[in-house]
From TrEMBL:
InterPro entries: TLC-dom, TLCD
Topology with respect to the bilayer: Multi-pass membrane protein
Primary residence: membrane
TM annotation in the entry: 31-53, 74-95, 107-128, 135-161, 167-188, 200-226, 246-270
One Pfam entry name: TRAM_LAG1_CLN8
Organism in which the protein naturally occurs: Klebsormidium nitens
GO cellular component, one term: membrane
Domain (TLC) ranges: 65-270
Record-given protein name: TLC domain-containing protein
An individual GO BP term: lipid homeostasis
Amino acid sequence: MAEFGKAPLFSMTTATLPPQSFHYNASIAEWVPAAIFGAVASLSVFILSATYSPLLEAYRKLPPMKKTEWDNRMFSTTHSLFVTFAAISFFRSSLFLEPSLAKDDLVILRATPFTFAAFGLSLGYFLLDIAMMTFYYPALGGAEYLVHHVAAALAILTALVTGNGHVFIMIVFVTEMTTPFVNLRWYLSNSGLRQSVWYTINGVLLFVGWLTARVLVFLYLFWYMYDHRDELHVFTPTQKAALFGLPPIFFVLNLYWFLRILVGMLKLVFGPKAKRA
């Protein structure tokens, strides 16, 4: 695939790039620094949380491992906000939605400096979180969380190395908008606020958000893959393996977690009535 000039890797002006820039292809030397920055930024948030969270009484009462999880969830939340912003910016632009009559201008092959930068930063986060989850295993999450993170890192790495399939990753990034609600639920629970109205409101928002972003969005992803099936012949066997192998893993895990959220939601709604009965 031909390259059409070089643009700064961290350029945020994706919406105004000319059509010939839709096929930007970054070298490893360009996105590896973004991955390193993503890991360093995540670690910095972890350290800042460990430094200033002791100002909170709820944090001081936690056992050491819970404090580590508190700090870990801080940079998890930061990452989710970033990739959600990236996904919204992506879909607000016309980069992957603008039709073209050129045979080699397939939507699934389009990439820009912005997508490379976003994926690099996200990869850095996932690699750091995998390292921490492995080191503290299973305190920061069981096997299912490790599987999720490893699959996510592989999907992002494939998109970075090949320079293709960025639209699929961005669709998956939308699902990360639920992470702040998951983490807030944990913070409220471990701060003794399970009976508060905020815990209930967050639980409802988590249920609706998960159903929308983690279930329905993935159904849309599968439809999008099917709708662009005639373009997939340009993918290598490795790319096809990642495309057809990794999303089902995410979807199964999301359904598993959704069932757990649903059970919690039912207990929240019918629990008191059931006890009175």
